[in-house]
Amino acid sequence: MTVRVLLADDHAMLRSGMRAIFETQPDLDCVAEVADGRAAVAEVARLRPDVAVLDIRMPKLDGLAATEQILADKANRTKVVVLTTYDSDEYVYRALRAGASGFLLKSLPPEELISAIRVAARGDALIDPSVTQRLIARFAAGIAPPEPPAALALLTAREREVLLLVAAAYSNAEIAASLHVGDETVKTHVSRVLAKLGLRDRVHAVAYAHAHGLVDNSHLRP
């Protein structure tokens, strides 16, 4: 499958550099480049790319506001990966609340950005490892656990186990090893959890579990 990508960054040299990197990958097709958030929203609506890679600091409309507008259109299947030079919890929190499927620092190696685009295109999600656990702890600390939502009753015991392991940042392979099941079985469980709880992807499953008090933060993985 070829992943159609839109790039939005106000620095022409950075866009050119990223586009050159994508062109080395046979499964990535950069369908457009834009220099501001307003143009990103318009081009996503016109082209419907699989993934939009948005810088946070852009003129006319910043990347976070553009993410919110793009993902407010429920008919739009485009996934958003947000890039930034700033390691800010507020940026990450707002991007995830908007529905972004990835949040990465520009200092990461190019292969990690490529991997994040592929992950997003598959319907999964990725946050820069340097901010993941801090963000989860901060997110959970600021929210008093409410009554368990009724949707949790739809999960089987095994699906609930899978949700808690996802919330603890386990990969599918690690979940499979922990539960002594195959990778495909884990993928099926994760898909069912997301569908039953109305969640967009794994990142939002993590936020959901912590927001609803399902996870003890003292047991977060280092």
TrEMBL record:
List every position bearing 4-aspartylphosphate: D55
Q: Please give the Pfam families that the UniProt record associates with this protein.
A: GerE, Response_reg
Q: Residues in domain HTH luxR-type?
A: 148-213
Q: Which UniProt keywords apply?
A: DNA-binding, Phosphoprotein, Transcription, Transcription regulation
Record GO biological process: phosphorelay signal transduction system; regulation of DNA-templated transcription
Q: Mind telling me which InterPro entries this protein's record contains?
A: CheY-like_superfamily, NreC/VraR/RcsB-like_REC, Sig_transdc_resp-reg_C-effctor, Sig_transdc_resp-reg_receiver, Tscrpt_reg_LuxR_C, WalR-like
Gene Ontology molecular function terms on file: DNA binding
Instruction: Give all residue intervals belonging to the Response regulatory domain.
Output: 4-121
Record-given protein name: DNA-binding NarL/FixJ family response regulator
